[in-house]
Amino acid sequence: MREDVIERANGERGIYGVIDKDPACIVIPLEHTREGEFVYLVEQFRYTVGRRYVELPQGGWEKPAVDPEEMARGELGEETGLRAQHMTELAQVQIGYGVMNQRHHIFLAEGLTHGENARDAEETDMEVHRVTVDEFEQMMLDGRVVDNCTLAAWGAYLLWKKHRAAR
Prior knowledge:
Elements: E1 2-7, E2 13-18, E3 24-33, E4 36-46, E5 51-55, E6 58-60, H1 68-80, E7 82-95, E8 102-114, E9 127-132, H2 133-141, H3 148-165
């Protein structure tokens, strides 16, 4: 975290607080079955807001230079135990660029198989939920999922899917 002395467009000087963060990823683990489509979510305690929340698997390795797909595969496995046969990078977004300079890589994970997770110490209370796509979308609409990165990732997926189908 740093505070920069800046000059605003009107010539006034001020202080701008910036949080420097290394790249991160968010993963949409999507399972296609005869029964329908399912999304895997994680639920964990978020210290900054003092509550447990449900969201897509996400995180970073606190390294400035990482291979985004390797990081996404790593985070997916660490948090859920899932491995993906296919990973597709859908988009890159900036998280909260009013205060933070972190880039978020959005990946779609398909062809899922189950294995053991390898959670960090702060993730030991994490729970994994498998929900239908319809339930996941309802969770976003009714406020059970409020994470802006999860909402942005799902929006990027829907746009990607729509444009892919149009080809």
